[in-house]
Amino acid sequence: MVNPKLCCRPKIHYRCIRPSDLDILEHIHVKLFPIRYESAFFQDVVNGRDIVSWGAVDASRPDDQSDELIGFVTARIVLAKESEIVDMLGYDSSKSDQTLVYILTLGVVESYRNHGIASSLIREVIKYASSIPTCRAVYLHVISYNNPAIFLYKKMSFKCIRRLQGFYLINGQQYDSYLFLYYVNGGRSPCSPLELLAAIVSYMRSGFKSVAAKLCKSEDRKISRWSMCKESHSLVSGSHNKRNLSVERVGYECV
Hints:
Elements: E1 12-15, H1 22-32, H2 39-47, E2 52-58, E3 69-79, E4 99-108, H3 117-130, E5 135-143, H4 147-155, E6 159-170, E7 173-183, H5 193-240, H6 242-253
Parallel strand pairs: 4-5
Antiparallel strand pairs: 1-2, 2-3, 3-4, 5-7, 6-7
């Protein structure tokens, strides 16, 4: 099992979770989380049945422990239209092929915390979600008193979109949950009323500018035509009195 203290700087490697990880995976879950997971969940994780997962190991540990899990993340692909955040994904979420990646569990053994392992595991999930063309976001729940996790997700640009009252029931007591979301592949939230108003104002301004430009162009054409007519009239008048025009020019230059 995992050592309580580190004897040297860890050399963290990341890999997929395998069937051989079953016992240690279950042991760490029991140790870290107040929620108890059924054995079927762990079987699904290690065998990759509808669940994707990544594990962290410390290659600097003795040979018999160098491939033992010291951190993990598990996730599942869900249909966007069947999720609880369908209202946060914009209009295209109604399409049948839109998906999301939901993070089920994330944990790091206490002695290995503050080494960036959790951040790296989350990045693995984001990279995986981004590789799926139909995926629009990664999301998860965090119990309201887990301040380190809340800080981590905010630091990694997850958005806290709502608070769910009494989401968790642990030992007969209810706890609230925060719902965090990270958009990928162009996913975005629907326009808020303020954003919609700003878009309308911007559209109206561009429309006014277009109309003004057309009016100015039309006015320039009128002036241009008037100038051409005036010039033509002057030339016609000059041709009728060519002699007088020459006299006026000589007289002007002599002044």
